[in-house]
Design brief:
By secondary structure, this protein is mostly helical. The chain has helices spanning about 10-25, 30-55, 60-70.
Length: about 80
């Protein structure tokens, strides 16, 4: 995968904490530590978005829809009113 370079700014205490993790070999370098943190945060945001969308579903409707295979069923959507 292609990689791009970015510049970011940290306060000194955050950078010191990051450097300690690199020094303890938790991460091979600052770049890898930051990349892993961003990837993890993005995954958490996506998971939360999915959970919010699932909370909008009507379990009774979804069950009935699944049992009929979606055929000849009331045309309303499971996210009605959302």
């Amino acid at each position: 995968m292609a990689r791009s370079k970015v510049a970011i700014f940290f306060d000194e205490s955050t950078l010191d904490r990051l450097d300690q993790l690199v020094k303890k070999q938790v991460f091979p370098n600052r770049s890898k530590a930051i990349e892993e943190a961003v990837v993890e945060k993005l995954a958490r945001i996506e998971k939360n978005r999915l959970a919010r969308e699932c909370a909008k579903l009507d379990p009774a409707f979804e069950k009935a829809f699944a049992e009929t295979g979606g055929l000849s069923f009331n045309a309303r959507t499971s996210c009605e009113g959302a």
